[in-house]
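pls ignore typos typing on phone
zinc ion + seq
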Amino acid sequence: MLRKDCVDAAFGQFLSLLEWVCWKWGVYFVKVNPNGTRQTCPSSFATVSNSLEARGHCCSECGYRMHRDHAAYARIYDLAL
Ligand SMILES: [Zn+2]
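k done
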């Protein structure tokens, strides 16, 4: 439990520092809730049930295919705007 608190505190401190650096350099900074970004299709916003072992994102609703990390990035990008 103490270890998790230390990791959370270090990550929180990192985010605060990153936010300050972005403000100082005039770079856009936003925190995005990462929950569900892997399961949501960035094209149709349908819920996709891909297993963790699957490296690709394949949407049965719209046929959107991409590497799962790129699909999660596209979803996070949509949430940030
Ligand atoms: Zn889709």
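The longest helix spans residues 2-25. The chain has two helices and two strands. more later
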